[in-house]
Amino acid sequence: MKIPYFSVLLSLVLLVSSGLPSANGACDVSTLTPCGRAFYYSQPPTATCCSRLQDQKPCYCQYLKDPRYSGFINSRKGKSILDACKVSIPKC
């Protein structure tokens, strides 16, 4: 069975992540776990997923600078989930 690229990437991100610090200490990529089904199984993102994506929006510039996360955010799947949740990536 072929392992989907995004499931491997998301798993890797969650395993190596200890969270990135921000001014308020709220950057923690593991809070995006509710988005897993949207990435793994191409299901529509849940309200919880969208809420967590919105909560983590101040962290996107930090995530985009980190090679562990940038590919995830910049991927076609990542962008489609952000679009479905009406969450835009800020200009960094």
* Spans where pLDDT lies below 50 across 5 or more residues: 5-24
CATH architecture of one domain: Orthogonal Bundle
Helix content: 40-55%
Per CATH, the class of one domain reads Mainly Alpha
Order of helices and strands: HHHHHH
Annotated CATH homologous superfamily of one domain: Plant lipid-transfer and hydrophobic proteins
Strand content: under 5%
What name is given to the CATH topology of one domain? Hydrophobic Seed Protein
Instruction: Look at the helices and sheets and give the structural class.
Output: mainly alpha
Largest sheet: none
Number of helices: 6
Radius of gyration: 12 Å
Question: How does the overall form come out from the CA principal axes?
Answer: globular
What does this 3D model show about the protein?
With 92 residues, the chain is mainly α. The chain has a domain of 57 residues: Plant lipid-transfer and hydrophobic proteins (Hydrophobic Seed Protein, Orthogonal Bundle), CATH 1.10.110.10. It is globular and about 30 Å long. It starts with a helix and ends in an 8-residue tail after the last helix. About 22% of the residues have low confidence.
